[in-house]
Design a protein that fits this description.
alpha/beta; 2 domains; 5-stranded parallel beta sheet; 3-stranded antiparallel beta sheet; 12 strands
């Protein structure tokens, strides 16, 4: 043996079968006998060979799993097409922008780690679409209404999980249903699913929110009044009372039972959430500021969710026709659909002043609960 060089002797010997006792039914003419002078090195060679064989089978298995998963996804999509209601919801709320994640074999559907719980007409859809710009976030396509509708909640968490998007390790799944905030049963139901879930509550100045709510309700009434019944006759005309008539009673007091007003009394609902979740689990997003300048609010949300700051000014451009910011990423651009950003009706300045005075004390109660002053006009 030369210094620094290991010598290995390999011996191969062909043995004629006639010289030994053959095994039963063995018709071979000879036997190959191989010997190695260094058993440890031979074992290493054998280990490497076995590892190579294992890796080959692993690659083939992973490829087969991927093909099976792709087939399953396509089959699920085909089933969804047969569900008219769910399909329409997907069409109405499906994003134009390309998904952050392809459905590889390592992706799965997970229960959401964060939920936008409300408030209605405060920008929940805009907030969700803005967050979807982040590569670490996947979103449910439509409003799932799992926790606020008994008929859905009774279907169980597995039904809810199947409503979630595919996501990979390191991504967050988020859904939004604005009516969660005002539904009494929801906080306890969400905690039963995940006690450490993170909640996003987006609010706007209450009078502005109430007028926006009224505008949407009036639009729905107008649409319904022009629809045709099954018998082919026009529907009876619906009343179209003004905002002032609905919010101010005949005696001059505020109609607190009118739903657009009731929902704007945020502190009435916030109490329930703080009885179930810690204040640190709920981030209050300023919807007015999100409209005027989205990036600072999104920075707060990224920090709250514990994800890298990725969304910046390059992701937005102002659409002067619509009057609000539209979204862009590396592949496409998107503005919210026409129903967003409806023009509000003109409301009497006297009524606006009266409403803001009414909301002043209610807003202070809300600010005390969230330990933050949002500086709404009084």
């Amino acid at each position: 043996m030369t210094s620094g060089v290991v010598s290995i002797t390999i011996c191969a010997l062909w043995v004629d079968c006639t010289s030994i006792m053959p095994a039963e039914n063995d018709t071979s003419d000879c036997i190959l006998v191989v010997g190695v002078s260094r058993p440890k090195i031979a074992a290493a060679f054998l280990t490497i060979a076995l590892l190579s064989l294992f890796l080959t089978f692993h690659i083939l298995y992973d490829s087969a799993v991927y093909s099976l998963h792709t087939t399953t996804v396509i089959g699920t999509m085909d089933e969804t097409v047969n569900d008219r209601d769910e399909t329409q919801q997907q069409i109405d709320q499906s994003p134009v922008m390309i998904s952050n994640t392809a459905h590889f074999s390592l992706t799965n559907r997970y229960l959401p780690q964060a939920i936008i719980i409300g408030v209605r007409k405060c920008g929940t859809r805009a907030l969700l679409e803005m967050l979807f710009l982040h590569p670490q976030i996947q979103k449910a396509a439509g409003e799932v209404h799992f926790f606020d509708r008994d008929e859905n909640y009774e279907k169980g968490l597995e039904w809810y999980r199947r409503k979630m998007p595919y996501s990979s390790k390191g991504q967050l799944t988020i859904e939004k249903s604005p009516s969660y905030f005002v539904t009494p049963e929801v906080p306890e139901r969400i905690r039963a699913m995940n006690a450490s879930v993170k909640l996003l509550l987006i609010v706007r100045e209450p009078v502005t929110r109430a007028i926006s709510d009224y505008t949407q309700l009036r639009t729905h009434v107008a649409t319904a009044s022009t629809a045709i019944t099954v018998e082919g006759s026009p529907r009876p005309p619906q009343s179209s009372r003004s905002f002032e008539e609905l919010v101010i009673r005949a005696d001059g007091s505020i109609n607190e039972s009118y739903r657009p007003i009731a929902i704007s009394l945020y502190h009435n609902y916030m109490h329930r959430w703080l009885e179930v979740f810690s204040r640190e689990q709920i981030l209050v997003v300023n919807g007015d500021q999100l409209i005027e300048d989205p990036v600072p609010q999104l920075r707060k949300i990224e920090n709250f969710l514990g994800i890298e700051p990725k969304i910046g000014r390059h992701n937005f451009y102002f659409n002067h026709t619509k009057g609000f910011y539209c979204l862009r990423n590396e592949t496409s651009e998107k503005c919210l659909r026409e129903s967003k950003g409806r023009r509000h009706p003109r409301v009497s300045p006297i009524v606006v002043t009266k409403l803001r005075k009414f909301f002043s004390i209610h807003n202070q109660r809300f600010f005390e609960l969230i330990n933050e002053d949002l500086n709404w006009p009084e």
